[in-house]
Amino acid sequence: MQRASVPALHAVVLSGCMMWAANVYATASTHVWAPSTDVQAYKVWHITADVYPAVEKDAAGNSVPTITNTGITVGVLPLTKFNMEVGFDLKTGLGALDSYPMYGNLKIGVPENALANGFPAVAAGVFDVGTKSDRTDYNVIYGKIARTFSPGGFTLGRFSAGYFTGNEKLLLNGKGEKDNSGLLAAWERTVTEVSDKLWICIDYMGTESIYGTLNVGAAWKFADNVSVIGGYDIFNNHDLVDTITLQVDIDI
């Protein structure tokens, strides 16, 4: 996002916390902010509309533009143990970068327990593949694993860990130095004690680049194919202004 004079960009190209998969966890593409191990089902189209308003003005007292993201993702493989999704996003509120609003994404993955009981979910992909060289080609490549833990029949939730790297010319820290690689981590849980429709999550992306954040959020599933998430995004670079987020997701 944008703090002070730093141009903002929502890292979650795959549209923030989308619809739950069959296991009712997480989303087809991301958690609150960072990519998840879930992959969109074959021929299912996922539409998302996200907004990221800043919680305060920048250091100079100027209002920070609200970032918007509208995206479509679809599953393209008719398999159960190996999946692939492709999609694109249109982003606004990025100043001069609004002239190049389209960003592509792709992910492949194996669902949890698909290869053997207890085998973790595994995914790899790329997002924020922009159309303007050294302006919007963030090209964030990542890998991630995830596993659900239920000791004694009580579900602690699903824990994820991974790593990402992107364009070293664009992913910089507050000093303008290369800061293009970092850790991915997340915890998520459906709060069945309250409702099977309620999901909560904490996720994290390392570095002090525009992707580096700690994010918390909760989602409510209004229908089998419709969910809404609200969250808060705390940037690792304290020169950037934190944002809140509202994300609406629909599967068709």
What distinguishing features does this structure have?
twelve-stranded antiparallel beta barrel, 252 residues, 44% strand, Porin, single chain, mainly beta
Give your account of this protein's structure:
It is a single chain. 0% of the residues lie in helices and 44% in strands. The chain is mainly β and 252 residues long. The chain has one domain: monomeric porin ompg (Porin, Beta Barrel). Strands 1-2-3-4-5-6-7-8-9-10-11-12 form a twelve-stranded antiparallel barrel. The model is unreliable at 1-28 (pLDDT under 50).
CATH class: Mainly Beta
Q: Rounded to an integer, what's the Rg over CA atoms?
A: 17 Å
So what's the oligomer here? Answer: single chain
CATH topology: Porin
Query: How would you describe the shape?
Result: globular
Q: How is this structure best summarized?
A:
The protein is an all-beta fold and 252 residues long. The chain has strands at 45-52, 67-75, 83-92, 102-110, 121-129, 140-149, 157-165, 181-190, 198-205, 213-223, 226-235, 243-251. The chain is built from no helices and 12 strands.
